[in-house]
Please model this.
Amino acid sequence: MTDALSAPLWNASISPDTEPHQITLGRGEWIDTKRNNRKILYKTYRPLDAGDGPFPVIIWSHGLGGSREGAGFISRFIASHGYIVIHIQHHGTDSSLWEGKQGHPWDVIRNTHIPRHATLNRFKDVPFALDQLATLDIAPYMDMKNIGMSGHSFGAMTTQVMAGQKRGHGKRQYDLYEPRFKAFYGSFKIPLLVMTGTDDDSPLKNFGYKDRLEVFTHSGGPNQHLIVMDQGDHMVYNGSRGQLAANPKQSIHEEIIKILSLAFWNAYLKNDTAAKNWLTSDAITSWLLDEGAYSYKP
Model:
């Protein structure tokens, strides 16, 4: 832990540098026969030596041009604390957009039209994935009553749609709220944690961090949390840089992401009163110091 983040956490045994339990990874694919045999790749993270569970489940959705392989540093850490994390890959808005094509992936994606049906299919992948959880060999370890969702960039939007954010206008408007989720990191009808940073500009279009604050500002659900990290940029959540230059605060930002994520999931998926009290008190401000601004709406 850095000196800048040295104030006590809600549990003295927790550290961003420590993964208390070993994890095991799994990979596979599901086929949705009702959508032209659409293939959904997945990757699982499960704690190995933390008992038989059941463990709360977290679904992770990648950003535009991403894959099930992103954000490993977050999911390893969270899974090591007694969670099962499942990354799903959305064909049509994933790495298939740029793989095998000349040029940097971001440049290729900027010049690619993303049709509406690709976005809708991405959203529909989530309830389909939830339907498939019981088919996994690790299903006996899952706590199906405590499921959360998170995502990066386009994956955050996907999370927001599952949380109750409506999309489209008039007859083209749709509501894909998914009631099986209990909390969201990434509404509006249940607890939500929004993470961004002062340098969190979209790599693909003119969209700055202040635009992202609208999710928190206009959310109407209970227990809404927001962190704006000082000099935090767009790609730190994915564990990769893309075309972004190195950020000297990357290690601090990763610590903040891991600890806040764990506190949020513990509070709302494990009913950890100490974690929730920490999230909703001045203690979190003392911990952050000048590394970020934190807001909470009960």
The longest strand covers residues 23-32. Strands lie at 23-32, 38-47, 55-61, 84-88, 142-151, 183-185, 192-199, 224-233, 292-297. The chain has a mean pLDDT of 88. The first helix runs from residue 72 to 80.
